[in-house]
Specification:
This protein has 509 residues and is an alpha/beta fold. The termini are far apart. Helix 4 runs antiparallel to helix 5, helix 9 packs parallel to helix 12 and helix 10 packs parallel to helix 11. It has 2 domains: 132 residues, no CATH class; 310 residues, Peptidase S8/S53 domain (Rossmann fold). The strands form 5 sheets. Strands 7-10-6-11-12-13-14 form a 7-stranded parallel beta sheet, with helices on both faces. The protein has a 3-stranded antiparallel beta sheet with strand order 2-1-3, with helices on both faces. The chain has a two-stranded antiparallel sheet with strand order 4-5. The protein is built from 14 helices and 16 strands. A hairpin with a 3-residue loop joins strand 4 and strand 5. The radius of gyration is 22 Å and the shape is elongated.
Length: 509
């Protein structure tokens, strides 16, 4: 059977990002009636073999309920009013504090509370809401322990989706599972042909030239554009994303760091720091925006753009409920920023999530260009098509290719939903990839996979926005498309191909 997990092949075993541990079933009265994890996993794998991505709408009631009970007993619920029309395109206009939306929310909660009180008469509505009432979007996380509730909710017009928010397929290799995409130690054995030293004293990665980035810099360096990197955060030990962000030729811009990632739940809930503990977010921020500085480190493609680094996940797999909420809230945060033009998401999952979809809809409807990694396979997973959320129509799916440009990188996913590629792997070596910032020190590191391709294309998109102030998302996308290697004939697996950044920034529109 296939297993589908997004990752990144950058020094996977050097650092580890431990996942949260879900509660046990000790307090669940129905535990002896649950469908086994083996049966649940088999059902999920069967659907994945057929569809590639798993959506909980395919789960029978007993599978859905049991999956939640085997994780944390918390369900993600998207709700709506009876008058809702085209939620996908109007979610950013909704006032969930209005009377009609409060009524829809409370109708759902009243049904859940009534069924929970059949098991425990002392249950209150606050006992159902480990993260409180929804604040911005019409979705909430609710603890449900009565199996009878599932079929009732699924029949309600007010319910958009009902999902187990934290259940996921665990890979066989626990070491690789805990280090998904993590590890960004400085590499002191760089091949000298993989970079060019440029003024004032910085290393330009070899892969920039394949998209004609150095020539594009004669027109723009990304001035006035803000890129949001939704990932594992940015390292507080990497001064090129801190005090040195405006060094050298990168003056006149800003970096801001946020966290939307919580740990724990109920009264144990706490907001994590924005500091990267994994390394992946630091690498992605470096590819897109690292300064053209004076310390010999790697320069980013949009080295004059502003950066918002948002810690939303522990690693690049969007597995836990806290991570799904973190990604949704990060998308809302970026969506509400008028200065943000590009959102880069080098992360994903083989599980479709209504919680994350709501965030994507919101940011997209706010006019943001959302770039998402098509997927990168581990040694224990089999390469497949484009994963979630890169498979959504509101995102542009990016994957990595070798210097040959028509051959995907050895770990990269491809498929009909891919929009663009980025050259990021040498033909002769799978270990010589794009250069970027390490978690610490002033020495670059290599990073591979569709993750690195996504952040690199985000940098190119910022260059185009900077050279065309006031441009719409469609105009920027069209410039990327028309100046890509396969245009006008889109590839069935590699989209429009890799972009000529210089041609795109100098287009007239």
């Amino acid at each position: 059977m296939k297993k589908f997990f997004l990752g990144c092949c950058a020094s996977l075993l050097l650092f580890s990002c431990a996942k949260e541990v879900n509660p046990t079933l000790d307090d669940v009265a129905q535990k002896d009636q649950l469908t086994s994890k083996t049966e649940i996993d088999q059902h999920i794998k069967t659907v994945m073999d057929r569809d590639g991505i798993y959506d909980w709408k395919h789960a029978p009631d007993d599978i859905l309920f049991s999956a939640a009970m085997h994780s944390d007993s918390i369900f993600a619920i998207g709700y709506q009013t009876s008058a809702t029309d085209d939620m996908e395109n109007n979610i950013h206009l909704i006032d969930i504090k209005s009377a009609e939306w409060l009524s829809a929310r409370d109708e759902v909660l009243d049904i859940i509370l009534k069924n929970e009180q059949e098991l425990n008469p002392e249950t209150t509505v606050l006992d159902l809401l480990p993260y409180g009432y929804p604040e911005d979007l019409p979705s909430m996380e609710v603890r449900i322990t009565n199996p009878a509730t599932i079929s009732i909710l699924r029949e309600m017009d007010e319910i958009r989706y009902l999902e187990s928010i934290s259940y996921f397929l665990a890979p066989d290799n626990a070491v690789e599972r805990s280090s998904s995409g993590c590890g960004a130690a400085p590499n002191y054995n760089l091949n000298t042909s993989d970079y060019t030293t440029i003024s004032p004293w910085t290393k330009r990665s070899w892969h920039h030239a394949t998209s004609n980035v150095p020539s594009a810099w004669n027109t723009t360096r990304g001035e006035g554009v803000t890129i949001a990197i939704i990932d594992t955060g940015t390292s507080n030990n990497q001064d090129n994303l801190g005090s040195q962000f405006t060094s050298g030729y990168s003056s006149g811009r800003f970096v801001q760091k946020y966290s939307t990632k919580y740990s724990g739940s109920w009264w144990w809930k706490s907001l994590d720091s924005p500091h990267d503990q994994c390394g992946h977010g630091t690498q992605m921020a470096g590819l897109a925006t690292a300064p053209r500085g004076t310390d010999g480190n790697a320069v980013g493609i949009a080295y004059k753009s502003n950066l918002i680094g948002i810690r939303a996940v522990e690693d690049v797999l969007i597995n836990t409920g806290n991570e799904k909420r973190g990604v949704r809230d990060a998308l809302t945060l970026a969506g509400n920023r008028s200065d943000v033009k590009v959102i880069s998401m080098s992360l994903g999952t083989p599980f479709s999530s209504g919680t994350v979809r709501d965030g994507i809809y919101y940011a997209y409807n706010r006019g943001k260009m959302i770039l998402a990694a098509a997927g990168t396979s581990f040694s224990w997973s089999s390469g497949f098509g484009v994963i979630f959320p890169a498979n959504m129509s509101q995102t542009y799916a990016i994957t990595g290719v070798k210097e040959s440009s028509n051959i995907k990188c050895n770990t990269c996913h491809s498929g009909s939903q891919v929009d663009f590629t980025m050259v990021m792997q040498r033909n002769a070596s799978t270990s010589r990839n794009a250069l970027t910032l390490a978690l610490t020190a002033n020495q670059p590191t290599y990073v591979s996979g569709s993750s690195s391709a996504t952040a690199s294309v985000a940098g190119i998109a910022a260059l185009i926005y900077a050279s065309h102030p006031g441009a719409t998302r469609w105009q920027v996308y069209n410039a990327m498309r028309q100046q890509a290697s396969y245009y006008p004939n889109k590839s069935s697996s590699l989209g429009w191909g890799y972009i000529d950044a210089n041609a795109a920034v100098n287009m007239s529109f």
